[in-house]
Amino acid sequence: MHMGIGQHATFSGALAWPYVYPWPQRPEGLINTAFAELAKRWGPILDHANTCGVDICYEIHPGEDLHDGATFEMFLDKVHNHPRCNMLYDPSHYVLQCLDYLDNIDIYKDRIKMFHVKDAEFNPTGRQGVYSGYQPWVDRAGRFRSLGDGQVDFGAIFSKMAANDFDGWAVVEWECCLKHPEDGAREGARFVTDHIIRVTEKAFDDFADGGTDDAMNRKMLGIGAH
Hints:
The protein is built from seven helices and seven strands.
């Protein structure tokens, strides 16, 4: 509040993450207990954020309990759909999970309040897939890339953000495993500038608008007068 910000980025914490893969079989109620505890810890923070007029934006991130849409919804349910419980959208983490990052925007558009513009690529082989076998970043099947060098369709993302009237920052988060960071920063700033869409105030075919005439409309439909 004192910094004049309306959104705050954070991670959720990771009580349940060590048990993300269901083998050995998880004890009944383990995940529910973990999310109940997360809600207990975050509840007072969310309430304080509400008093300050600040959205808490959880970066949906592998390694955290909130790592996809399903886990975000589990947490949201535990905090009773708290209005300050929101998302930081980062498509790179969805590419590495093979999650539909465009559909995610459609589903959670009312909860997405922050946006990390970060690229990634996922190239599975016969040796490794999503988990990437503990390899260094440059050798992983899923790895982060500089903007424009990966597989993320940012044209579609910025289009959806514009259509949804997203009014937050598009923040470059650079974590490329190949390119020099100075080049990544310079190219990334230009990349974002070139992708931001200035939303039009009128439809392209407004020039042909003939106004409203109920009688003409009914005549065109062949339904006659009342």
